[in-house]
Structures are given as C-alpha cells and as structure tokens.
Specification:
alpha+beta, 4 strands, binds FE2/S2 (inorganic) cluster
Length: 162
Amino acid sequence: MTGNARSPEFTAEQLAEVRRLQGLYPDKRGALLPALTLAQETFGWISLEVEEYVAGLFELSPAHVHEVVTFYTLYFQQPKGRHVVAVCHNLSCHLLGAKGIIEHLTQRLGVEVGETTPDGRVTLLSVECLCACELAPMMQVDDRYEGLLTPEKVDGILEGLR
Ligand code: FES
C-alpha cells in the first residue's frame, strides 16, 4: 500500500487491477464499486481526497463518486474501528428484539450507533436487512454473521474482539 488519506495512491499492482476491472464492462464506470472497495481496503476509509483520486481514475467528477459513496452504507466516510459491528434493525430482527440488542451494545461499548469506541476497537452501526432473517436478531461482525442474538451472546462476541 502506498499513500494515505491525504494523498491517496494505489500501487502499480492495484492500478492494474482497477484497469482490469474497468475492462470487464462496456462502460468502465461499472467497475466503480469494486474500485471503491479496493480503495477502502487500502486507505481504511473513503475520504474526500480518496473520492477525488478514484474519480480521476474513472474520468468522473468527484461529486459523482461522492454520490455513490454516500448511497452505500458499506463505504465509510470517516475512520472506522478495527472491527465493525452492524446490527440489523429491519422487520424480522426488529420483531425479535434488535432494539434491545442495539441498546445493549451502546451500553457495553459506551458509544451511540454510528460512533467508534475511543480506543478504536469497534464501530457500531445499525443497518437494513442483511438477508439472514432466519437468524434474527442478527448482526454482521466484520466479515461474518452472528445470529439468534441475546445480550449474553453479544457479550461473548465482544469479548473476542481485540
Ligand atoms: S430483517 Fe434482519 S436480517 Fe433480515
């Protein structure tokens, strides 16, 4: 990885990957989402500078890229914690206690939804349906799903996040 949020820059290998992805689509804009995902993996979050950098790679206006970034909740517009805990608040999960799970998490972590713990350990989010309604109430912890949540189960999961 090279660069940072102030002067973002992909490596030559990453640039080649962006070009390869762009070549997969009739309009290279089709590769914008995977390029933004790569940018987030590389720079940690999508700053305005990163948006401008990616816009340049696609010959788009920074405003266009900003619209995309702000539409999708999977893109972070500020630094995120080492772990991201995203609780589903949609219908099935709501009916089975998501509100209480979220309240429990805010108390245990000492942050509100959308915030990151002061030690940078966890960012807490509340999100729409994650298509695992059979696990309600459920949440996504980084790349994995945790379901059939209870406050006790949540505590055990938090214990494992360093
Ligand atoms: S409503 Fe929560 S996963 Fe679908």
